[in-house]
Amino acid sequence: MDLHRTMHAQQAPDVYAGKSCEGIAPRWIGSAEGDKDGPGEVGTDGVISLSARTFPPGTIVEVREPMCPQCGEVPHDAGDLPDGHGGWFTHWKCGCDFDWRKFALDTYL
Ligand SMILES: [Zn+2]
Residue 33 needs a FRET pair 20 to 30 A away by CA distance; which of 10, 55, 98, 106 works? Predict the structure, then answer.
């Protein structure tokens, strides 16, 4: 059976978070078919809920995570580190020294 993509979301951190606007806060940016305003923040407090009642039988929810461009690993949460501005950020770690915080800033700033 063919599938038609109707919704999409990406973990696109807010890189202007916190009082100093220099923090990084995880969030989902998404859109659904027919959105006239384009992609925007979705979910509540960083959590997306999908009720099975809302979707027809056969609907698929797929999660794809980024692979390190250097070592190919999907990074894991290695705990929190201070962000230098009074807050904390998730320290994403893979099999090499790839800087996931820099990646977030380079991609979403
Ligand atoms: Zn790596």
Answer: 106
